[in-house]
Amino acid sequence: MKALLVLEDGTTFIGKSFTGHGEVGGEVIFNTGLTGYQEILTDPSYLGQIVCMTYPHIGNYGINPQDVESERIQVNAFVVKECVKTPSNWRATDSLDHYLAEQGVLGIEGIDTRALTTHLRQHGCMRALISTLDLDPKSLQKKAQNLLPMQGQALALKATCQQAYTFTDRPVRVDLDGFNWPEGKIRLVVLDFGIKWNILRLLKKYGFEPLVVPASTSLDQIKKLNPEAIFLSNGPGDPEPLTEVIAKVKKLIDLYPVAGICLGHQILGLALGGKCFKLKFGHHALNHPVKDLTTGKIQISSQNHGFCVDISEVKELEVTHINLNDNTLEGFRHKTKPILAVQHHPEAAPGPHECENFFAQFKNLIQG
């Protein structure tokens, strides 16, 4: 059925829905990955966004229960050039079109995704409406303009868990009042802003026992848990409206070793005196070159963020990583305190595993 995608500047793309009728809005971003669409769909960092894949054929290898990064699809809508409805892969248990439709997520195909990507690169990410119900471009443009911009949205408070949990292959809910740490592992409280499950898998691989708690968990409650370290997760939206979280992190960094990834990196940067700004069209892919300034080596990283931190005026922090595409900040560490963070995703999922040593560095920081 016919579908329109209309940007807030009036630019209109005509396609068709492959998931049924619907209408949805959000900020449109593009992802240049050739694979990894299932991990992208379930990454909570995409909450509130419409994702356009630049690779023309999406859905080739289907859907399976293992390649998920949260309990549900997180994107507002999914835009592809062509959805492959008959996948071919021994791991596949479902098709992309059925997977989206089953969870009520609108998917459209047939539009010129390269033209959309070029437009966003030239003019920046913007709000949009996708609809099969309203086919009037002017009406959809007005609706898009009335959407809340990404700046100012504390989406992490929507993405966070409602109850604390430990992690095996899936979350296992726990009562914090009666929680006991297992022996032999590093006691790690994870503040959840929309965490990807592969971060938890790798934390466990490197000897941590992650206890994931809601973003609203109080400082007193965290102290009662007696952790050895704190981890700040990835997540969606703008970090600056998270004023209570930032204030809490300012106190945590004087008490425990702290690490952060993506939004956690941004929150740490703000808590330590840095500033945050929105990128023109963000970094959303699994092929961004990052230079590790501590070793001089180049790593290919997985990335998903629309905001960036500026720590140029924070003398206590040392830049450890930069993005070689635009020289933006990709990592820092504190000169005297056990604090480190990266903007990219060392857990990959999807993407290369070249940055996984971040977890080992955090472990060494705690033990050292």
- Class by SSE composition: alpha/beta
| Anisotropy-based shape | globular
Along the chain, the helix and strand elements come as EEEHEEEEHEHEHHEEEHEHEHEHEEEEEH
- Report the span from N to C terminus: 60 Å
Oligomer designation: single chain
Mean pLDDT: 97
Using only C-alpha atoms, the radius of gyration works out to 20 Å
Largest beta-sheet characterization = 9 strands, mixed
Features:
368 residues; alpha/beta; seven-stranded mixed β-barrel; 22% helix
Descriptive overview:
By secondary structure, the protein is of the alpha/beta class. It is built from ten helices and 20 strands. It has helices spanning 37-41, 96-102, 113-123, 137-145, 156-159, 197-205, 219-225, 243-252, 263-271, 357-367; strands spanning 2-7, 12-17, 23-31, 49-53, 57-58, 77-79, 82-83, 106-109, 126-131, 165-167, 171-173, 186-192, 208-214, 229-232, 258-261, 275-292, 297-310, 317-323, 329-334, 339-342. The strands form four sheets. The chain has a nine-stranded mixed β-sheet, with helices on both faces. Helix 8 (243-252) packs across helix 9. The longest helix is centred in the first third of the chain and has 11 residues, at 113-123. The N and C termini lie far apart (60 Å).
